[in-house]
Design goal:
- GO terms for molecular function: hypoxanthine phosphoribosyltransferase activity.
- Keywords: Glycosyltransferase, Transferase.
- This is PRTase-like protein.
- The chain is α/β, with parallel strands linked by helices and 248 residues long.
- Helix content is 34%, strand content 23%.
- The protein has helices spanning 14-31, 45-54, 86-91, 111-117, 140-158, 162-167, 230-247, and strands at 36-41, 57-58, 65-66, 70-77, 93-97, 128-136, 171-181, 200-201, 204-216.
- The strands form 2 sheets. It has a 7-stranded mixed β-sheet with strand order 5-4-1-6-7-9-8, sandwiched between helices.
- Helix 1 crosses helix 2.
- The chain is globular and about 65 Å long.
- The relative contact order is 0.17.
- The mean pLDDT is 88.
- Bound molecules: guanosine-5',3'-tetraphosphate and magnesium ion.
- Magnesium ion binds next to loops.
- Guanosine-5',3'-tetraphosphate binds next to strand 4, strand 6 and helix 5.
């Protein structure tokens, strides 16, 4: 069989992605200590499940290692045009699935809020929430997800008495993507440069931690889970790696 000419697509294999996620997890655990993940479907599902393998946390009560809960949200993006305002960005994303209020708890921090007030923004309040997706391209989806989850948390905090609020741990957010694509972003996130930047304002962190498995040039990425022919995907991936090695 002849070798088709390689295009400029990037072709990470399942193994490449697994390794990148494992490496990124070390910093996430040390720096952010997530209590739960919110995976943005469909691209965020596979990365979130792999990441969970590296993010076990100790249960305070039993001392046993516990898996982090993965919550799911579904977001779909409409076609966009340049020069959109903040509000317009919001209208380009459609929710196909969202967190349930009163969903199962992650670390127990929000349990009291849920028990007494019947809502806790899907278990986010008082927790370290890690939002997971496969790619940060235009940043539109991540911008929407972060801001909407933040709104839910603030609304819940506003609705509970000040003394209960004061006893809760802060709610903090982080983002993990397998790939952050270089290039212009259509939306901005208040990303911390270092943990020292973090400030808690009214019970919520004033910015977001940001982690990427790798930063890539703005070329199209073929994800293994999108491929009907995974063998061919792996073959082309190996071919590109061999060419790159030759070139270096
Ligand atoms: P962003 O929010 O992270 O900036 O990405 P953006 O909205 O621009 O992406 C819109 C859709 O395009 C997303 O799919 C995203 O996964 C996909 N996309 C962007 N860049 C790439 C790429 O290089 N390769 C591939 N394969 N997809 C890319 P979606 O609507 O969220 O669909 P789903 O797969 O998550 O269900
Ligand atoms: Mg997606």
């Amino acid at each position: 069989m002849t070798t088709p000419e390689l295009d400029d697509h990037r072709r990470p294999t399942y193994e490449d992605i697994h390794v990148m996620i494992g490496n990124a997890a070390k910093k996430i655990v040390e720096e952010f200590k997530p209590d739960l993940m919110v995976a943005i479907g469909g691209g965020g599902f596979f990365p979130a499940r792999v990441l969970r393998t590296f993010l076990k946390r100790r249960d305070e009560k039993t001392g046993k290692q516990r898996n982090l809960p993965i919550q799911a949200i579904g977001l779909s993006l409409y076609e966009q045009v340049d020069g959109m305002s903040e509000e317009m960005i919001g209208t380009q994303v459609v929710r196909t699935q969202w967190l349930e209020f009163g969903a199962p708890k992650a670390s127990g921090a929000g349990d009291e809020v849920a028990a007494r007030y019947g809502k806790d923004s899907g278990g986010l309040v008082g927790n370290n929430v890690l939002i997971v997706d496969e790619v940060d391209d235009s940043r539109t989806t991540l911008h929407y997800a972060y801001n909407e989850l933040l709104k839910d948390v603030r609304a819940t905090l506003d609705s509970i008495p000040a003394d209960v609020r004061a006893d809760l741990p802060p709610t903090r957010f982080a983002i993990f993507v397998v790939q952050n694509k270089l290039g212009p972003k259509r939306a901005e996130l208040p990303i911390y440069n270092s943990p020292a930047d973090e400030k808690i304002v009214d019970g919520v962190a004033d910015g977001v931690y940001y982690y990427a498995g790798e930063t890539t040039p703005p070329v199209w990425i073929d994800y293994p889970w999108e491929m009907q022919d995974i063998t061919e995907h792996n073959r082309l991936s190996a071919l590109a790696k061999a060419r790159n090695q030759q070139a270096n």
